[in-house]
């Protein structure tokens, strides 16, 4: 798994970026703009999956774990959802297509280049009315959610950013009183690359009830899993 990631993410990607004079993320966006149906979020998701499974690997949640994400979102039926780690906007589009009328998703992205791609992806999918993209580090944005973005509490949180931020950001969500009884956290990549500190924290905490969903790393046959943690108050 690690060797495959190094090959895809570092060696192959850098060579292709140099030859084509554009980033992998821009290539994903271009493929969507040329091949997906504007205003159809399912078409956008399927087109990204097609590109990343056949052309270039990318760190979207992917189609297999995407079904776990879908099921969890549908069960939580959130009015207000938070995503940490937007990347190209794949999961923002995937989540937003399942939201009920009037619900909203706040998605946080630290990398300005990724945020620019994601904005175009979200708009092309036609879900910009449901999604608000917030640029900056999660540890700065989370404490601003109540006052600046009028969030009372979060019904659903998807953690898919830096793995070493999973635990401190979960603690921050608690300290900022952004979780209510029944709030659902879903964390990606808890086996590969892995988030052992997060698993240790939520599984040992009396405030969370956890469920593990074994799966595979996006677009690969490498073992991975998602962890659902329901806040008990």
UniProtKB/TrEMBL annotation:
<keyword id="KW-0460">Magnesium</keyword>
<feature type="binding site">
    <location>
        <position position="218"/>
    </location>
    <ligand>
        <name>substrate</name>
    </ligand>
</feature>
<comment type="similarity">
    <text>Belongs to the class I-like SAM-binding methyltransferase superfamily. Cation-dependent O-methyltransferase family.</text>
</comment>
<dbReference type="InterPro" id="IPR017128">
    <property type="entry name" value="Catechol_O-MeTrfase_euk"/>
</dbReference>
<dbReference type="InterPro" id="IPR029063">
    <property type="entry name" value="SAM-dependent_MTases_sf"/>
</dbReference>
<dbReference type="GO" id="GO:0016020">
    <property type="term" value="C:membrane"/>
</dbReference>
<dbReference type="GO" id="GO:0016206">
    <property type="term" value="F:catechol O-methyltransferase activity"/>
</dbReference>
<feature type="binding site">
    <location>
        <position position="91"/>
    </location>
    <ligand>
        <name>S-adenosyl-L-methionine</name>
    </ligand>
</feature>
<dbReference type="GO" id="GO:0042417">
    <property type="term" value="P:dopamine metabolic process"/>
</dbReference>
<dbReference type="InterPro" id="IPR002935">
    <property type="entry name" value="SAM_O-MeTrfase"/>
</dbReference>
<protein>
    <recommendedName>
        <fullName>catechol O-methyltransferase</fullName>
        <ecNumber>2.1.1.6</ecNumber>
    </recommendedName>
</protein>
<dbReference type="GO" id="GO:0032259">
    <property type="term" value="P:methylation"/>
</dbReference>
<keyword id="KW-0479">Metal-binding</keyword>
<feature type="binding site">
    <location>
        <position position="163"/>
    </location>
    <ligand>
        <name>substrate</name>
    </ligand>
</feature>
<feature type="binding site">
    <location>
        <position position="61"/>
    </location>
    <ligand>
        <name>S-adenosyl-L-methionine</name>
    </ligand>
</feature>
<feature type="binding site">
    <location>
        <position position="189"/>
    </location>
    <ligand>
        <name>substrate</name>
    </ligand>
</feature>
<keyword id="KW-0489">Methyltransferase</keyword>
<dbReference type="GO" id="GO:0042424">
    <property type="term" value="P:catecholamine catabolic process"/>
</dbReference>
<dbReference type="GO" id="GO:0030424">
    <property type="term" value="C:axon"/>
</dbReference>
<feature type="binding site">
    <location>
        <position position="109"/>
    </location>
    <ligand>
        <name>S-adenosyl-L-methionine</name>
    </ligand>
</feature>
<dbReference type="Pfam" id="PF01596">
    <property type="entry name" value="Methyltransf_3"/>
</dbReference>
<dbReference type="GO" id="GO:0000287">
    <property type="term" value="F:magnesium ion binding"/>
</dbReference>
<keyword id="KW-0128">Catecholamine metabolism</keyword>
<feature type="binding site">
    <location>
        <position position="189"/>
    </location>
    <ligand>
        <name>Mg(2+)</name>
    </ligand>
</feature>
<keyword id="KW-0531">Neurotransmitter degradation</keyword>
<feature type="binding site">
    <location>
        <position position="188"/>
    </location>
    <ligand>
        <name>Mg(2+)</name>
    </ligand>
</feature>
<keyword id="KW-0808">Transferase</keyword>
<keyword id="KW-0949">S-adenosyl-L-methionine</keyword>
<feature type="binding site">
    <location>
        <position position="160"/>
    </location>
    <ligand>
        <name>S-adenosyl-L-methionine</name>
    </ligand>
</feature>
<dbReference type="GO" id="GO:0032502">
    <property type="term" value="P:developmental process"/>
</dbReference>
<feature type="binding site">
    <location>
        <position position="160"/>
    </location>
    <ligand>
        <name>Mg(2+)</name>
    </ligand>
</feature>
<dbReference type="GO" id="GO:0030425">
    <property type="term" value="C:dendrite"/>
</dbReference>
